[in-house]
Write a structure and sequence with these properties.
By secondary structure, the protein is mainly alpha-helical. It is built from 21 helices and no strands. Helix 2 packs parallel to helix 14 and helix 8 packs across helix 14.
């Protein structure tokens, strides 16, 4: 009974999310509440939801401060010199342009927001692609692959924060074992960009550009921000602060939420010392952060009901009875592979809040820690960003004025290959199947 109720709830939730009839925030709140009442848990549903919200509170705090920190670093222009150097270096060589696109996106993607990343990258690189008559599908594919690797494997990216928050797991436990995979994934994306760039060079040749007219100040155009928020004189201080923060995060010396809280305060004080400037920066990044936090807290309530009613336990028990016992030791790899089609056809909210808790509970029956399942399921984000319903993907194809069907056909094989490469890297480095 609980298995049927739980699967029906997840199916209904997925339907309303994918059809666009409800926002993620609304669906995560209303649908589990109704099913809990239908299942006879009405008297205790508020306690279940509150327990779930408590579970995600620390992760929500970490997400908020991490987004603010990297947003401030980008606002202050910490990446500007390197990005401008990349753009000037690539000039008229399609191969260099493609590789430069990958490196640029990998850097900007640290912001964790797909919309911001694609706005900056596309606005910076598209004039050059047009000047060289390069295929915009190459730009779309490289930008998507680069962002999907960074977004998927960092603990402040959307997939990681969703999975960690609903399961109440530590960011450092997730991130540190995935660092070799992240580095390897970045190298792989650069290799893909090299291959695509070489194909474009063969098709177009190298164009001799006397002057790169259209992208002299790409970041200012891309970010549509005034130069007054840039802090070029603080470059080395900001870079040192970022390195220290990442080192402390990796070493696990301080809880991530506290670490980024302190980092945000320091970044604010050294770059924007007045209250007015600080309010402007918070207001600029607050809307995006608030929407993410609403979904995370609602996801916590959803998970609280899923766990409190024991629906997730019932589904997991039935799933264990289906999978052959001999496959148990490979469960995390199986989940990583299954996640490729799952994330392609489902939204991240539906998948990470509705399906991943079931995978994690099932894994415990085979002696596999839930954190390993979280690492497994984030490896397929490049497949997810082929989904036409993803807002960042809609923005990407809209800015490039390309057909979604052409984009999917062109990027599909590179997307799947990237998923498989990340799974292989995670397996060989011990991030999964430890």
């Amino acid at each position: 009974m609980l298995t049927v109720l739980g699967l029906t709830m997840i199916a209904v939730f997925t339907y309303f999310i994918m059809s666009g009839r409800m926002s993620s925030f609304t669906a995560l709140t209303v649908i589990p509440l109704l099913f809990a009442i239908i299942g006879g848990f009405g008297s205790s549903v508020d306690t279940m939801m509150l327990e779930g919200i408590k579970l995600v509170a620390t992760s929500a705090a970490f997400l908020l401060f991490a987004l603010l920190f990297f947003g401030i670093m980008i606002d202050a222009g910490m990446f500007d010199p390197l990005i401008n150097k990349i753009i000037k270096t690539v000039k008229g060589d399609p191969l260099k342009v493609a590789v430069g696109t990958a490196i640029l996106t990998l850097l900007v993607a640290l912001d964790g927001d797909g919309t911001t990343t694609f706005i900056i990258v596309i606005s910076s690189m598209l004039p050059l692609y047009r000047r060289l008559n390069m295929n915009p599908l190459v730009l779309a594919t490289i930008a998507m692959l680069s962002f999907s690797v960074v977004c998927g494997l960092t603990p402040w990216g959307g997939p990681g924060i969703r999975a960690l928050s609903v399961l109440g797991l530590e960011q450092t436990d997730f991130f540190i074992p995935l660092i070799p995979t992240l580095i390897g994934g970045a190298i792989w994306v650069i290799i893909v960009s090299f291959i695509l760039g070489k194909m474009e060079r063969k098709r177009l040749g190298v164009v001799d550009l006397d002057e790169f007219e259209n992208t002299a100040y790409p970041l200012e155009v891309a970010a549509t921000q005034e130069c007054s928020i840039k802090r070029p004189q603080m470059l080395w201080i900001n870079l040192s602060l970022t390195i220290i923060v990442m080192a402390v995060l990796i070493m696990g010396l301080v809880k991530p939420a506290v670490l980024f809280l302190v980092a945000v305060v320091i970044a604010m004080l050294i770059n924007y010392p007045t209250i007015e400037l600080q309010k402007e920066r918070i207001n600029d990044h607050g809307a995006n952060a608030l929407m993410v936090l609403l979904v995370v807290f609602a996801g916590g309530a959803f998970t609280g009901i899923l766990s409190g009613t024991e629906m997730v336990d019932s589904i997991a028990d039935d799933l264990v009875s289906i999978i052959p016992e001999s496959w148990g030791s490979y469960f995390s790899v199986i989940i990583a592979l299954i996640s490729i089609p799952f994330t392609f056809v489902m939204s991240n909210d539906a998948f990470f809040f509705g399906v991943v808790p079931i995978f994690a509970n099932t894994a415990t029956a085979y002696g596999i820690e839930p954190i390993e399942i979280v690492r497994a399921v984030v490896l397929s984000q490049s497949a997810h960003f082929l989904l036409p319903l993803v807002p960042a993907t809609i923005l990407l194809i809209g800015m490039l004025k390309i057909n979604i069907a052409e984009y999917v056909r062109f990027a599909f094989k590179w997307s799947v290959l990237t998923c498989l490469v990340l799974i292989l890297l995670a397996w060989t480095t011990g991030a999964i199947m430890t």
